[in-house]
Amino acid sequence: MQCVPSYAGGDKYQVECGLDSQHVVDLVENSCSCKNWDLTGIPCMHALAVIHLKDEFPKTYVQTWYTKQTQLQIYSNFISSVRGPKQWASLSNMLPILPPPLRRPPGRPIKVRRKELDEPQTTKG
């Protein structure tokens, strides 16, 4: 599908894709009226048409959380390993944790079986 961008004033551009599809792209706010760019942080096809019109690089409009530097900062903290159960401290003064008591309703449990399609339906009454 071919998208044709046109300047709409200010920092906004109108992008026409097909007969009934028009979207407004704002390169300063990093948003498009289709909301894909707003949700993902990656320019949608409407924004890419405007970026191509302005002869700029799409990479500069991708959110910073997708960059290699941000990913390296996220995983830069050292995660210490957990010791095995044999090395855990024993808590001898603690009572064992038991499951909650089972409470059954009074009376006989109701048993309802599924009837076949050709079996007559009976009702109590």
UniProtKB/TrEMBL annotation:
Keywords: Metal-binding, Zinc, Zinc-finger. Pfam families: SWIM (PF04434). Residues 99-125 are annotated as: Disordered. Residues 13-55 form the SWIM-type domain. It comes from the Eukaryota. The keyword Transmembrane helix does not apply. The keyword Membrane does not apply. One of its GO terms (molecular function) is zinc ion binding. Transmembrane segments: none annotated. Residues 99-108 have a biased composition (Pro residues). This is SWIM-type domain-containing protein. It comes from Gossypium stocksii.
